Amino acid sequence: MAKQKKILNREISWLHFNDRVLQEAMDTNNPLIERLRFLGIFSNNRDEFFRVRVATIKRLMEMYNTRYRDIDFSPRHVLKEILKLVSLQEKKYNKTFFQIKNELRKNQIYFVDETEINKEQGRFVRQFFTEHLHPYLFPIMLKNIKSPGFLRDKFIYLAVVLHDSKGKQEDDYALIMVPTHRFSRFLLLPDEQGKKFIMMLDDVIRFGLDEVFKPFDYDTFTAYTIKFTRDAELDIDNDFSKSFYELMSESLEQRKRGLPVRFVYDSQIPAALLKKLLKKLKISEDDSLRGGGRYHNFRDFIGFPNLGNENLVYPEMKSLPHPLLKKSSNILNLIQQQDIMLHYPYQSFQYLIDLLREASIDPKVRAIKMTFYRAAQNSNVINALINAARNGKKITVFLEIQARFDEKANIYWAGRLKEEGVKIIKNLPGYKVHAKLMLIRRKEEGKNIYYAHISTGNFNESTAKVYADDGLFTSNQEIAQEVNMLFHLLESPYTPPRFKHLLVSPYYMRKSIIKLLNTEIKNAKAGGEAWAVIKLNSLVDKKLVLKLSQASRAGVKIQIICRGICVLVPGIPGFSENIEITGVVDKFLEHSRIMVFANGGKPLYYISSADWMIRNFDRRFEVACPIYDRQIQKEIMFMLQTQLHDNVKARLINSDPINQYRLPAPGEKPMRSQFYLYDYFKKLSE
To answer: What CATH number was assigned to the domain covering residues 504-685?
Structure first.
């Protein structure tokens, strides 16, 4: 990284983030199976990066070459840099996987392929193949392929060479999809003398190829893994005679036929077969081609099984009770008395479901409103809303149909809710609703009283177990009524109201943050207290980057905790010398967005659904909510300071060299913030 570079390209910054994930796989202090799972996370991240960001760059390359000459970077140059970094990361990746496999052997865990199993294991594999796997294998002869549209993204295929050792017929070729949507990628073989054996599903298919091709007069079969990545950006047409749900469903079908952006193959594949594949699948040299090892789709390693040895996985961290809620049988009454904040996954997400269950049978509750961006596959939250509707409550839901890669699931849930009489707020073409809001309306002494839950993360009980988020329960009527105003705005977005407490995009959240930073600049110039602590997933918005730089030059001390993309380079004299940026990658995925401003000695606290990106400020409905409760403010600052002092899993963002760990100072004790915070909340719950 050039030392004078002040702002990085966002795609390169994202690759630096994914390199931090890879570092977790490389970290020998992490349990072995967790290291394998980080390889899976890294691989999954990279796949989505190619499906979305690289696909977008390739589109930009076409535009750049034809019409657009005024963009401030060369897409072709960025793509070249991306492929260079990806290649370097791939080398580290393969080396890490080899090391982990060697370490697993020392723990009596062995990966074996179809050539390494003994007779007893062979009988077990053959039985599994015949009774379970074979019915889901449907080979397609390569010569019969007319179009590559049938190839499914996110899946791997075996390209099979059918050979006659007697030479009576020429070689033939076929493709077989590995059905990982039906079976685990990992087949556990019977233990032998305390040793555990794992066989990849790809190799199980290789073992049974003679059964698959019984009707053919071939006796030798070899198979090579290929993987096909498509452009996942949706093109939505402007046919106004169709509902938005119809348009989205059609766009999802188009995604299945998206243009190729990456083709990965086993580097041992015969040249003749590779040539035929590229021609049949309409893959050109302009696409990202890469020869790799025998196995692909390491994303499946996210689900690598626990194998009984506790030392190979992280210690279990069960969600903890909240000290104020653990003995309460009436959550609404407790919220009426004081604001409460839950910190996921340290504290239990179940309280939200319990609150909805309570509201569904409370005779005073009249209505519930909720936004969803990514609902769980089997959502107890949505089921609780359905139960409330059946109990006569008026339920209104906004379910974001355009949530990338969750569109299909959200369309399903929208239909399911509609069947139960739930009012569905229509999607807004061109905008997404990313705010995480829940509102309960209760009739108390003849008046409408509102209870709100405002969160930094999705109302998703699955991700709440691994995503670190914060959610506020409040009966502060000024805030809750503004949440209600926002729901009215989603139903009729043409007359935006003025919000006194909430910061709302796409209207004026960016302007509000700039105003808050301007106050710090003014105070710094006057010699007063001036600082800000900001926690984000991504920092990309150029206007705010430049405003942070202005604040730094004025003497405002700024500490940023940024997990993902960060285009701002800190510590540059005359630009960002008063800015420190770190990021924590560990067991949990840091997901909360928090802002704290000194405000002349009267700090202002906000939690938010929005990252500092153009899309979040201009093309999404987002909310930043002020935190007024003094005790909750102390909790937030304690958590921020704990992460700012992490010297085990914190990296210096955009450092030189990239992603340096922040190490303990001489005499300083190790501080692993996530584990420290878990122990802290555990003591509070006792």
So the answer is: 3.30.870.10
Beta-bridge partners for 504: 623
Q: What pLDDT score does 245 carry?
A: 41
Average pLDDT over residues 170-198: 93
Eight-state DSSP code of residue 125: H
**Residue 66 predicted with pLDDT over 70:** no
**d(Cα 389, Cα 169) in Å, to the nearest integer?**
67
| CB atoms closer than 10 angstroms to residue 157 | 24
Catalytic site residue 77?
no
**Residue 248 pLDDT:** 39
The answer to whether the 10-312 and 331-499 domains have the same CATH topology is: no
For residue 296, how many C-alpha atoms fall within 13 Å in the half-sphere facing its CB? 26
List, for residues 581-625, the tens digit of each pLDDT value. 999 999 999 999 999 999 999 999 999 999 999 999 999 999 999
- What pLDDT is stored for residue 167 in this prediction? 82
Which fold does the domain 331-499 belong to in CATH?
Answer: Endonuclease; Chain A (3.30.870)
Do the Cβ atoms of 157 and 176 come closer than 8 Å? yes
* 8 A C-beta contact, residue 200 and residue 111: yes
Q: How far is CA 2 from CA 8, 658, 662, in A?
A: 10, 11, 21
pLDDT at position 616 is 95
- At residue 18, the 3 state secondary structure works out as helix
As a residue count, the chain comes to: 686
Give the residue-averaged pLDDT of 57-85. Answer: 71
pLDDT score recorded for residue 1: 42
Token pair for 148: 């590559």
> How far, in Å, CA of 209 to CA of 219, rounded?
10
Predicted pLDDT of residue 379: 86
Instruction: Kindly state the tokens that stand for 631.
Output: 């005790």
Between the alpha carbon of residue 274 and those of residues 157, 223, 282, the distances in Å are: 13, 12, 12
Q: 3-state class of 494 per DSSP?
A: coil
Identify the active-site residue in 16, 296, 343, 434: 434
> pTM of the prediction?
0.89
Q: Which CATH architecture has domain 10-312?
A: 2-Layer Sandwich (3.30)
What is the torsional sign of CA 477, 478, 482, 485? positive
Residue 592 and residue 457 in contact, taking contact as beta carbons nearer than 8 Å: yes
Q: What percent of the chain has pLDDT over 90?
A: 66
Angstrom distances, CA of residue 617 to CA of 72, 405, 425, 427:
21, 22, 21, 18
Question: Is residue 243 helix, strand or coil?
Answer: coil
Percentages (nearest 5) of helix, strand, coil residues in the chain? 40, 25, 35
Q: Using CA atoms in the order 39, 41, 44, 46, what is the torsion angle rounded to 10 degrees?
A: -70
